[in-house]
Amino acid sequence: MTQVSWEDAVQRLLEDVYTFAATGPRTLAGWQRDALAVMNREVDDPRGWTTLDWDEYNDKERTASRPCYPFVSLSESELDSTLNPVTAETAARLLVEMTYEWGPAGTLEQTRSALADARTVLGRYGDGVSCYSNVAQARRTPSPDLTKGINGWAPLTKFIGDFGFVVVSSEEVGVFWSFDAR
């Protein structure tokens, strides 16, 4: 895994859609607190790699009282109860769904290419990761069928819709989220 290959994959997948993609360090405080630190922009990427943050300079919405915008302010227990475990392959598929703005992916070749990029993105975190998502399909199984798109979610914003996942390794926590702000 190189910085260039990871950043290229992230850019190809998420550069053109309203997303948040950031990584922070894993601490002894628990993955929930670590994920909230990423969402609140309290930590930087431990490797200095690219962060995609469409609201980084949105000073009108992001204030001292709500640095997590567009996310709502959450406690660790609220985040934990909102997210359900998913497999790493499901997290890869969620990245593809973000690329195609929540609907079924493009052609078979486009889907394969996007999945390869998604696996590259997740490869940064290693093999022994835990992933958690707010998609409704994950309430029933950690490996939901997402081939027909996302059909519901537990919101973490005040937008019409949002979905994403947190990936947790022994050293890092990544937050990947997609927003429908219409």
Keywords:
182 residues
Could you explain how this protein is built, in words?
The protein has one domain. A six-stranded antiparallel beta sheet has the order 2-1-6-5-4-3. A hairpin with a 3-residue loop joins strand 5 (161-168) and strand 6. Helix 1 (3-14) packs across helix 5. With 182 residues, it is α+β, with helices and mostly antiparallel strands. The chain contains five helices and six strands.
Mean pLDDT: 91
**Helical segment tally?**
5
Largest sheet entry: 6 strands, antiparallel
How does the overall form come out from the CA principal axes? globular
Low-pLDDT runs = none
Question: What count of domains describes the coordinates?
Answer: 1
- Give the strand order, joined by hyphens, for the main sheet: 2-1-6-5-4-3
Order of helices and strands: HEHEHEHHEEE
Number of strands: 6
Structural class: alpha+beta
Q: Give the distance, in angstroms, between the N- and C-terminal Cα atoms.
A: 36 Å
β content, as a range? 15-25%
Please give the share of residues in helix.
25-40%
- What is the rounded Rg? 15 Å
Nutshell version of this structure?
The protein has 182 residues and is an alpha+beta fold.
What is the topological layout?
Elements (H helix, E strand, L loop, with lengths): L2 H12 L4 E7 L5 H9 L12 E2 L22 H7 L1 E3 L1 H12 L8 H16 L6 E4 L27 E8 L3 E9 L2
Antiparallel strand pairs: 1-2, 1-6, 3-4, 4-5, 5-6
Helix pairs in contact: 1-5, 4-5
